[in-house]
Amino acid sequence: MRYDETQRVWQVLDHETVSTVLADPATYSSDLSALAPTQPDFETFTRGNFVGMDPPEHRKLRTLVSQAFTPRVVQGLGPRIEAVCDRLLDAVADRDRFDLVDALAYPLPIIVIAELLGIPAEEHRLFQEWASVLFGGDQLGEAPDMADLERALEAIAPTVREMNGYMLEHIRARRADPGDDLTSRLIAAEVDGVRLADQEMVGFVALLLVAGHITTTALLGNAVVMFDRHPATDAALRADPAGIPAAVEEVLRWLPPFPELGRRVTRPVVLGGNEIPADTMLMAHLGAANRDPSRFAAPDVFDVTRSPNPHLTFGHGIHFCFGAPLARLEARIALHKLHERFRALVIPSYEDVVHQNPAVIVGVRQLPVEVGRP
Length: 374
Known about the structure:
Structural class: alpha+beta
């Protein structure tokens, strides 16, 4: 553990302690509302965003959402994800160079989520516009303080308001005329006579847009970068595509899109030999835990055959990432399609690669690639 003087937070770095913190929501709360700046438009989202909740509210909401967003629903998306990948890659079929983020990594997960929710195809562009504003991080420095966060919240509030209004309208339309989509299933979900309120559904949809989109975009871009930097690995995966799922896990270990998770200490504790008072902010550092030599052999080696690979990129405990199965499925299918379509795929110049603001997410914003076809 170490104390970060600049941000005035404790950082938890080793795998065992990070796991302990994430597995104990009673002591290490996910509800940071008392420590974070507020903004009225965002408060509407928090009602359905169970990432920022503790039990019992968390359990109620996650159980209801689990009824609609089942493993079977995710697995059933496989053929549709393949079709969307094909359509997106068809659009660059006549080009030897293109931006992989623009062409595939960014639109793929948004289209999948929008379709899943029953959003009409002609309105998918709206989701892309919202996501680019919400996760651009243009208003933040690399080590933002509370004043930076307040300014950022104010700047993106109109987008949040627009998205909130759109989704409420969509939910109400589905109440009147249910279909075979996730929105309709969320409306129908019920546990012990309790159903989701419209506003809770809006919060969950916002969460799905984050968990199901920005992480997959980052994962895909990060995978292409890592494969480019390790040509022998890329060649091995082309020769045996069965290795792609394990390779995806190693990319996740190596470059977690969200490398830190914040927690609020609810009572005085002793952690790593340090006395930490109540209402202190802790940052559980997934990136450091994923390189803990006591948990991973040769942690600084990128090894796509690593097994087991107990990385913490998707979290641990009750908040284990809800979007993980979808992110994994999309990444596996997209990487397989890229290998299938292109005999070679290289990054010609790293000077042209534009990275995201690491204070928001670890990933690339622009990734120009050069391809060769069979």
